[in-house]
Structures are given as C-alpha cells and as structure tokens.
Amino acid sequence: MFVDQIVRFNLISQYLPEAPATLFEVGCGGGEMMRWLEQKGYIVSGCEADSSLVSHAQIWAAPNQVILADGTKLPCEDNFFDCTTSCDVLEHVLPELRENFLDEIFRITKPGGKVVLTVWLNKTFSFKLYGALYLLATGQLPQWYIEHIQIPEPLIEPIKEYFEKRCEQVEIIPYQGTINLAAMLAQNVAAAKGKFRLVKLINYIDFIVKKYDFLGRKTSYLFAGIKVR
C-alpha cells in the first residue's frame, strides 16, 4: 500500500463499527482496503466497475466477495450491511449520477448502520504540481488524474446536506495535503519506473505518515454518519 492509502484507511477505520461487522466497499479498486479490513476482523465484500481491477482483487478474495458492478446500480439487498464505504470514488462519477450513487450506498446500509466515504474535492496547487512533476518524470498522466481533470469535482455543500438529511452524528473531516501528495508522487513515479524497493522504503519511513497525518487535510474530505432514513 502507498502512504496515502495507509493514512486514508486509518482515518476511515476511526468511523467504522467494531469488527466483526459486515462491510461493503463501493468502488473497491484492487481490494486493498477490503483486504486490510478483513485482516482486522471485518466481514468484507465490495464492487468495482473496472474488470481488470476486479480480477486483481479476486487473486486474494473469496468467490463473489468482489463483484463487477457500477456504484449507481448495486446488486445488493436493501438495508443489509452494518457499514458501507467508498474511498475517493464520488469524484469519478458524472455529476448527474452522484445523487443516485449516494442513494445506492444508503439503500444497502442498515438503519443504524454507518456510511463512511472520502471524496477529493479541491484541485489545489499541490495537486496541479503533482500532475506536472508526474508528467515530467514519466511522460504521461495516471488515468485517475486525467479523470480528475475531465470530470467537475463535487461540491462540499450538496454532500453535506445529503448526509445531514439521511444521518445522525454526521462528521465532516478535511484531510490530505502537500506532504501526502509528495509521498504519493514519489511512490507512483518509482512504481512507474519499476523501482519497487523505493515504493516500499517510503512506507517504512514512519515520520512521513505521522507528519502528513498532522499537517495534511486540504484536498479531500471524509463524510461519516449513522443512517436514520
């Protein structure tokens, strides 16, 4: 896992119910957070719209634990999971489908269950610098970054209003800043160039994670609440 994943997952875990709760991740990518939470005792499953990422996650996951599905139409029962989460996915959903995406997340969560998601909301200077340096180092941009440029970012107020209408004990936490993006840039460039020892080394530099967690909190927000309707 990259530094930004470690910090994000630790932040999300603070708002989850206690294990062994049932947890569904919408847009689980290669299943990194699912696997991390399963090791902590959660009963996890998830979906991903990219078939190549589903195949990657299914290397370790049990059959049907990770399914190919779009977050705007989830093949799950109503009011089923103790917690539903989504990690930096909403900003990749087209604006006209975002409310539908949130409706589905809440539909599959039990009343009294928790909804926790992180959203990248701000194209800060450090975000733009990240793109410029990555392009200089590799000659291309990562697909997730291209989507950030092409798709208008979500606005905090509509998401806040949605959570306040559907939840109690709503928490909105800004996070992720320059130090995290710098560590993330170094790891992504190293991975693109096949320098995987450097990727691992950055994860072992504990002070980077701690310092980031203290000084970050700029580009993204965590939204969490307990479903009441």
From TrEMBL:
<dbReference type="GO" id="GO:0008757">
    <property type="term" value="F:S-adenosylmethionine-dependent methyltransferase activity"/>
</dbReference>
<dbReference type="Pfam" id="PF08241">
    <property type="entry name" value="Methyltransf_11"/>
</dbReference>
<dbReference type="InterPro" id="IPR029063">
    <property type="entry name" value="SAM-dependent_MTases_sf"/>
</dbReference>
<dbReference type="InterPro" id="IPR013216">
    <property type="entry name" value="Methyltransf_11"/>
</dbReference>
<feature type="domain" description="Methyltransferase type 11">
    <location>
        <begin position="25"/>
        <end position="117"/>
    </location>
</feature>
<protein>
    <recommendedName>
        <fullName>Methyltransferase type 11 domain-containing protein</fullName>
    </recommendedName>
</protein>
